[in-house]
């Protein structure tokens, strides 16, 4: 949805006022658009670009030194009027003619075309150029009918750099046309955008589907398919562009991975890993790639990939310095052409303290127990997430699965290497903390690590050590987090568990029976957390969120306690 | 929704790989986070920041010269683990101690706190600092319990600049704590975010409602209200922050207007206009304000406002150069502290050619006709939008309303000033084109302007001139757009209208009867457009979209023709 506006019909104009206010260093407002705020010398070709609003940073965000001289900005998704195009262009003109750039849409073609005619009547040399990079919008043999999308940025950047370098209009136009001929874009969309004041999206993509080749105003795409994974989407985008390598193209490409509005930077970075690998596998060198929002469509969900095949003329222009609200390239940095970032290898521990045969056998039992635990928590992941979402951020199930899965793997590796009980449990503890992160990760890691310190790699573990370990886990967790019983944390379940376990062991019960009694108590206590009144304290941030709900941490603690059957086989 | 991922549980790590690949100039990947790619001298205090993922550019985007030395990044919405915080911090350390910054969340407090203890054990001087800027999360008298949101950026930027300037750890910590004490944020949310792999949003805001003070992980806010206009939201945000001006605060503030993910730049710019006006009215000077995405929450819809009250110590640090993926401030630009952008006044025409009494009377009739037309199009706006949305971008109704309303106002102004028929219609034409923009704007503007050229400000208009004007409008529109009957444009209705009008007038019918016959023909033709097979040609981009649907332009032309009753009163 588009929510922030006072009057829908002044949305675009209000946005331009705000933009020029914030970016007063680079742009200033004029009727119908924006001009550079910085002085521009007479005799420089003016690059004037434009189109409808709703696509920020297109087009006002492209204005600044090294890039465009002015942008003419229409209403949302509507071409600016002929009169405003003409008046903005006249103000930007510095006596050396104008390159007039816009996407290839009917309204823009009409208005920019009429403005060009009028400007010629004013005695100004004008070269209109409609950008045609969207391969989904017309077949390869009819490129002149294609729409302009994120390729606008690449072509206008190159034209702007050529103009800034003092090239005459003929050259600026030739280079811009060359860049346009070498630029291809292809995109997918997951959901439509909503015009300011509209109550429903302009168009819809069915839930679970993605629209391949959909235009930035919702123009029909090529087909709809179920939503694919990032690697598959990367393959789709890359393949379609590599199917249409322009004539005389080399191996160096400018790349723009563009988000349409609600598809976030982190998603684009995930997609980039796969896109970059495919492009590099195809032998291409990726020159100063851009990943972010460069041609949006209000709050549309989706993304597009743009390639501009460079050559010795175009590459320096793509890399040349510029200073706009969107894009700042310094004089010394353009030459970075990235290579793949190597994977960060996990540092794996491979040696363990010597263990007795009996302790190594218990280590294997602990590893089996961690595997049971991980399986149980994975099964409960959604339910734990739902409980957590009522009061917290809903990721408790995911965190517990991540942590326990990593812990089980680490414990298995340690046990396989012959480690003893203390080392196996310690390995599980560290892996849990590292991989789970968050509050539950640090608490579980600390608790298991503390418990492991009551065990040994030599002497077989007995029931007293297990009870002592549980007690030490509780003590270290409460010391760290400051939570007391009643604060609605896992301590609400852990505390009665530890008390029952210790009392039962002290009373001479075998470990299996003592553990069963303690688990039952933990489960009962976790059910009761919904009725607790949270108290203020160091843990009060969590406590306050959970008023009236079961605490997910207590529930998962109880679940874990009930699951670790392997421990029950310990000799006692 | 979060759509782009391969495996939900590697989303955060994959995003960091992609981020470091794209931004290899400034950052490099390490286990658990990112480090500066640029050399940092021994003896500089290290600023190490971090927290969960899902908040990009927080925290990895803050790393670079003049800002943070490293970021530790956990899983989505989950604190990084103690071990990774420690290992990243050790790598960033340059022998002068570490400022360790994070938002005040339970998991972060635990993990960063434990890491700080361990680092002290390693012999490194570490100062942990939990950011507490979110005024919605706890009362003013309990600031230590507040959460950290976009104020992280302000505090870390200031700390980073202090460290870069060579200040010792005591000073960096003092300045960072001062900045935190002077920083306040307040936000609203319109809709929740979706964790990677989740099928439903983490939390929901009821449709039409906004959640005031909602946290960036969905922590409960203060209250829910119906969604307000931008000016009212601005007032809410500004007032809440000005209610809590920190002690010893002056009149100069750093400002961050932050989008949470799916609230777009243009919306933020609209909101900025109102926010900036209120802050300036309160006597504040806005120093290098930032409007954009600086602390997101995946794809959450909403925004927050942050103020940091500056003084002679803090302001130079806020303005100091930095070079990160998020924020680039050059050495010479920080001193801009913006003032309000003046409104751009519409240039209004005030003098008209002399008109005869009869023509001035007809001018008033034309103005009345334009008012009828604007009212009719406004009533039909939603319907025209729906028709257009089936094949186009759904803004036809809005464009026609904007254009005809402006045309009616301009015609009224001209008629009131005594202009003749030709001038009134010409004024309407220009206003329509300027205000409507887009394809329909240029076409209607051109058509009305052409028609006006067949009228006069002297001799009263007769039926022949009206028919000639309609013919000239058709000719100029087809010459401009290249559309022929059957291309599914307004020409499909205009062409039969003009032919019928001319034939009827030629046959001696009075204008009223001829116009009525022509209007009927236009309406019939507009209904028939759904059955047309669009042809390729200059208008084919539009034509292809509209296969199987009525053409909105033809429908609105027919509606307009049927509405202009005032013309029928012309003497014939």
UniProtKB/TrEMBL annotation, chains A, B:
<dbReference type="GO" id="GO:0019563">
    <property type="term" value="P:glycerol catabolic process"/>
</dbReference>
<dbReference type="GO" id="GO:0004371">
    <property type="term" value="F:glycerone kinase activity"/>
</dbReference>
<protein>
    <submittedName>
        <fullName>Dihydroxyacetone kinase family protein</fullName>
    </submittedName>
</protein>
<feature type="domain" description="DhaL">
    <location>
        <begin position="364"/>
        <end position="566"/>
    </location>
</feature>
<keyword id="KW-0418">Kinase</keyword>
<dbReference type="InterPro" id="IPR004007">
    <property type="entry name" value="DhaL_dom"/>
</dbReference>
<dbReference type="InterPro" id="IPR004006">
    <property type="entry name" value="DhaK_dom"/>
</dbReference>
<keyword id="KW-0547">Nucleotide-binding</keyword>
<dbReference type="Pfam" id="PF02734">
    <property type="entry name" value="Dak2"/>
</dbReference>
<feature type="domain" description="DhaK">
    <location>
        <begin position="7"/>
        <end position="327"/>
    </location>
</feature>
<dbReference type="GO" id="GO:0005829">
    <property type="term" value="C:cytosol"/>
</dbReference>
<dbReference type="Pfam" id="PF02733">
    <property type="entry name" value="Dak1"/>
</dbReference>
<dbReference type="InterPro" id="IPR050861">
    <property type="entry name" value="Dihydroxyacetone_Kinase"/>
</dbReference>
<keyword id="KW-0808">Transferase</keyword>
<dbReference type="GO" id="GO:0005524">
    <property type="term" value="F:ATP binding"/>
</dbReference>
<keyword id="KW-0067">ATP-binding</keyword>
<dbReference type="InterPro" id="IPR036117">
    <property type="entry name" value="DhaL_dom_sf"/>
</dbReference>
């Amino acid at each position: 949805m588009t929510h922030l506006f006072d009057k829908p019909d002044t949305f675009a104009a209000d946005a331009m006022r705000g933009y020029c206010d914030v970016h007063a260093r680079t742009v200033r407002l004029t009727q119908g658009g924006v001009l550079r705020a910085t002085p521009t010398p007479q005799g420089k070709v003016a690059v004037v670009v434009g189109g409808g609003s709703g696509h920020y940073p297109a087009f006002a965000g492209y204005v600044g030194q090294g890039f465009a001289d002015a942008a003419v900005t229409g209403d949302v998704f509507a071409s600016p009027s002929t009169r405003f195009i003409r008046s903005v262009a006249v103000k930007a003109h510095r006596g050396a003619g104008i390159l007039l750039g816009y996407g290839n849409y009917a309204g823009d073609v009409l208005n920019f075309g009429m403005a060009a005619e009028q400007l010629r009547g004013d005695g100004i040399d004008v070269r209109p150029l409609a950008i045609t990079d969207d391969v989904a919008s017309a077949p390869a043999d009819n490129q002149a009918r294609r729409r302009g999308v994120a390729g606008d940025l690449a072509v206008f950047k190159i034209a702007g750099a050529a103009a800034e370098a003092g090239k005459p209009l003929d050259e600026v136009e030739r280079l811009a046309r060359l860049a346009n001929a070498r630029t291809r874009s292809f995109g997918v969309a997951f959901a439509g955008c909503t015009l300011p004041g509209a109550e429903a999206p302009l168009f819809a993509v069915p839930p679970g589907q993605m629209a391949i080749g959909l235009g930035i105003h919702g123009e029909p795409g090529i087909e709809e398919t179920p939503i694919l994974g990032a690697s598959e989407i990367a393959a789709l985008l890359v393949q379609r562009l590599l199917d249409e390598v322009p004539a005389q193209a080399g191996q160096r490409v400018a790349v723009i991975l563009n988000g349409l509005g609600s598809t976030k930077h982190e998603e684009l970075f995930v997609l980039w890993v796969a896109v970059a690998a495919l492009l590099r596998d195809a032998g291409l060198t990726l020159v100063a790639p851009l990943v972010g929002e460069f041609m949006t469509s209000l709050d549309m969900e989706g993304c597009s990939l743009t390639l501009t095949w460079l050559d010795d003329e175009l590459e320096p222009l793509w890399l040349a310095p510029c200073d706009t609200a969107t894009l700042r390239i310094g004089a010394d940095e353009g030459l970075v052409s990235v290579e793949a970032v190597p994977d960060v290898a996990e540092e794996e521990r491979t040696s363990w303290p010597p263990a007795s045969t009996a302790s190594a056998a218990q280590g294997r039992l602990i590893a089996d127990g961690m595997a049971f635990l991980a399986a149980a928590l994975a099964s409960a992941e959604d339910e734990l997430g739902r409980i957590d979402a009522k009061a917290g951020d809903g990721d408790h199930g995911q965190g517990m699965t991540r942590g326990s899965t990593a812990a089980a793997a680490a414990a298995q590796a340690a046990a396989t290497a012959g480690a003893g009980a203390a080392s196996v449990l310690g390995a599980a503890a560290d892996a849990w903390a590292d991989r789970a992160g968050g509050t539950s990760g640090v608490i579980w890691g600390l608790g298991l690590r503390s418990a492991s310190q009551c065990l040994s790699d030599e002497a077989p573990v007995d029931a007293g050590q297990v009870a002592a370990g549980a007690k030490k886990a509780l003590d270290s967790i409460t010391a760290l987090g400051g939570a007391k019983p009643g604060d609605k944390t896992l301590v609400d379940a852990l505390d009665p568990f530890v008390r029952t376990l210790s009392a039962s062991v002290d009373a001479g019960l075998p470990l299996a029976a003592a553990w069963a009694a303690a688990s039952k108590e933990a489960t009962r206590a976790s059910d009761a957390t919904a009725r607790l009144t949270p108290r203020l304290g160091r843990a009060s941030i969590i406590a306050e969120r959970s008023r009236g709900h079961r605490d997910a941490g207590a529930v998962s603690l109880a679940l874990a306690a009930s699951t670790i059957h392997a421990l029950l086989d310990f000799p006692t």
